[in-house]
Amino acid sequence: MRIFKTTLLLLLLIAVTSCSSVRVAADYDKDANFNDYKTFAFFKTGIDKAEISDLDKRRILRAIETELLAKGFTKSKNPDLLVSIFTKSRQKVNIYNNSFGGYGYGWRWSPWFWGNSYYSNISTSTEGTLYIDLIDADKKELVWQGLGTGYLTQKMEKKEARFKEFVAKIMEKYPPGLQQ
After folding, report:
1. Residue 20: band (very low, low, confident or very high) from pLDDT cuts 50, 70, 90
2. What is the DSSP string of 85-144?
3. Are 39 and 74 in contact (CB under 8 A)?
């Protein structure tokens, strides 16, 4: 029974830590001079293609704007950079086979149960990926792309915080070369 409890605790710990983390990566044009970019605007054409609700788009765009303003950018009608987003999501089904009150394989009998000593626990979760594209406004070329992947929440009170976390983690990678 002690092994069962330890395994269950370990699985719970892994689930909690994996749900809160955002895995990030970034790619960029090595020829771009990121010191030249001081202003930004949102690229409506690209943003309109993102397959999420308008409410979630606004949450993400507000978080991006907050991060860029904190980095010293200014929002402009004649920007150096255009900001676009792209999203993907997929449903993940997790099946956990657990021992039910016994060790080893095979059949067992108890006053309440007769049969196999294993049961399955099935859960689903949504894993989302957010791409943030920074496009040189003059050349109309992608100069930087950051992406973050992690689990999403459907709880309204936690959604905005989760989007802010995604965007903040991704934007830690901008500008290139300043990361730890």
Report:
1. low
2. EEEEEEEEEEEEEEE-SSSSSSEEE-SS-EEESEEEEEEEEEEEEEEEEEEETTTTEEEE
3. yes
Residue ranges covered by each domain of the chain: 22-90+126-171
pLDDT category at 158 given cuts 50, 70, 90 is confident
* CATH number assigned to the domain with residue range 22-90+126-171, chosen from the 4 options 3.40.50.2300, 3.40.50.300, 3.30.70.3450, 3.30.160.670: 3.30.160.670
- For the whole model, what pTM was predicted? 0.72
Q: SS3 of 74, please?
A: strand
* Selection from 168, 171, 163 nearest residue 55 by Cα: 163
Chain segment 48-68, per-residue pLDDT in tens = 999 889 999 999 999 999 999
Q: Percent of the chain scored above 70 by pLDDT?
A: 70
